[in-house]
Amino acid sequence: MQKTALEEEVLALVRPRPDEIRHIDEVAERILARIRADGRAEGMVVGSVARGTWIHGDRDLDIFLLFDPSLSREELEEQGLALARAIAGAEAESFREKYAEHPYINASIDGLDIDLVPCYRVESACSIKSAVDRTPFHTLYIRERIQPFIDDVLLLKQFAKAGGIYGSDQMTEGFAGYLCELLVLSHGGFRPLLVASSRWRPGVIIDIEGHRARDFPEPLVVVDPVDPKRNVSASVSLTRMCEFIELSRGYIEKPGREFFFPPPRPVLTVDGAAGILSRRGTYLYAIVLQTPPYIEDIVVPQLRKSLDAIRGLLDRHGFAVNRADCEMHEDNSMLLFELLVEELPAVTRHEGPPVWNQVNAAKFSSKYMQCSQKELFSGPFIEDGIAIVEKRRAYTRAADLLRSPEMLQVALGKHVKQAMERSYSVSRGIECYRDEFALFISCFLQKYSPMTWIRKHG
């Protein structure tokens, strides 16, 4: 499909420059030459660089070290890390070991962020021994088909980045590069995809090869062309899917440059954040802990689990939560809660069983008859056939609950709990504001869908 003048303007800005392409190719070839010289593995450039679908300014390069599948997992890790370290030691300004399903090396080489990832050289994606073994097959599949649609992929990636929905990481829960490529392939271009996605509902199934081998629970299902048992869009949350639907409708209705280059989200000053809090009349609480030393894919789900558990604790004690969110940074992570009430009266009403439920009513009365006056204000008494007591509330202030031992007794994520057992802080109101979390807090206090932000500020 012919591109509009707007789309051609965007493409002129997002296509990689010749000097960028030359530089990344030269660095990749140096590394591949070192892998060939070592002889233990085959080297392969994977990802968007290999497929020609990377955007101007991207500095990421993924190179896989393909080892014989006869190696044990321990041997793969040992030999793979040894080779990756040797390459990084010879080429990199700095490098570090990172962990996904198994360890790999992340290195900074000539201004590029490079992952050196050991994997098995298997015959097909159906015979993989580790999750990363599938990636070379993704590269081969896309490279054979994508050439007529490279510009469409660049447009979709920039569109998704601008909308804040690009990336399959746990924090974003959005659209990965490989998913963008498959969506463009399956619909025959950028605008045909947007027309189709504007009508999406949860439960969409896209199966290019027509080989789906199982059902998937996620709201958007894009069956992996190289693995019929995998949903490429498993990381896409319902929220991100619906934000994409709304953005698609907005672009079709009124295309604009702001869909690719939106106005930046302003970072509030302390005074600005304080003013918004005052106008909202709610109560902000932040829990800050040291980030556990694991990759985002491990830590973020645990932060979200902990967020839900603490939200439930607050709700059970009567401190109604309006919204909650979390943010992971390298050194510290934050759990942020907006409460509708932060102080409650000492008395709380507790209803028991109906009087005609003789056994349970007797147990209820017996239990509370033994309570002291410090524990119980009134009761048991009967109201409309129900046994009732008015008890003393365990915590009348949200801050006391958040600093109490009960915090460590709820279903926190394993590594988050370990970090909080060592230390965590509780802040209230504008004291929650920290420079390192300023953008996170700003977006929390000024929450818009991507489409709303574009329409209001574009």
Which terms summarize this structure?
458 residues, alpha+beta, Beta Polymerase, domain 2, Poly(a)-polymerase, middle domain, Alpha-Beta Plaits, 5-stranded mixed sheet, 4-stranded antiparallel sheet, 15 strands, 41% helix
Q: Note the overall shape.
A: globular
- Residue stretches low in confidence (pLDDT < 50, at least 5 long) are none
CATH fold-level name of the largest domain: Alpha-Beta Plaits
Tell me, rounded to a whole number, the average pLDDT: 94
Q: What top-tier CATH class of the largest domain fits best?
A: Alpha Beta
Strand order of the largest sheet: 1-2-5-4-3
The portion of residues forming beta strands comes to 15-25%
The number of domains: 4
**Radius of gyration from CA coordinates:** 27 Å
Number of strands: 15
Helices, by number, come to 16
Helix/strand-derived class? alpha+beta
Biggest sheet layout: 5 strands, mixed
Short description:
The protein is of the alpha+beta class. Helices cover 41% and strands 22% of the residues.
How would you characterize the overall build of this protein?
It contains 16 helices and 15 strands. It starts with a helix and ends with a helix. The strands form 4 sheets. A 5-stranded mixed β-sheet has the order 1-2-5-4-3, sandwiched between helices. The protein folds into 4 domains: 17-131, Beta Polymerase, domain 2, CATH 3.30.460; 147-259, CCA tRNA nucleotidyltransferase, domain 2 (Poly(a)-polymerase, middle domain, Orthogonal Bundle), CATH 1.10.1410; 270-343 and 396-457, 2-Layer Sandwich (Alpha-Beta Plaits); 347-392, no CATH class. The mean pLDDT is 94. The longest helix is centred in the first third of the chain and has 21 residues, at 18-38. Helix 6 (150-162) packs across helix 7 (177-187) and helix 7 (177-187) crosses helix 8. The chain is globular and about 80 Å long. With 458 residues, it is an alpha+beta fold.
